[in-house]
Amino acid sequence: MNMQSDLKDNQLTTQIQTIIEKQYDLGPLARIKEIFGGFVNRSYAVWTGRPERLKKFFMREYNPNIAESEIRFEHALLNHLRQNGLDIVSGVIPCRDGSTFVKTSVQGQKATYWGLFEFLEGDDPYTWVKTDLTDAEFVSAANILARMHHAGRDFIKPEGADRAQPRIMEFIPTFKNIFSGYAEQAGDRRCDKLFKANKDRIFSVIDNCMAAEKNYRGMLEVPVHCDYHPGNLKYKNEKGVGIFDFDWSKVDYRLFDVALGLVYFTSEWNGPAAGSLRMDKFALFLKSYNEKCIRLGGIAPLTKKEQEGLIPMLATGNLYVLNWDLMDFYETENMDDDEYFTYIEHNILLMHWIEAHFADINRVIQKVCA
Question: Which superfamily, per CATH, for 4-118?
Answer without folding.
Answer: Phosphorylase Kinase; domain 1 (3.30.200.20)
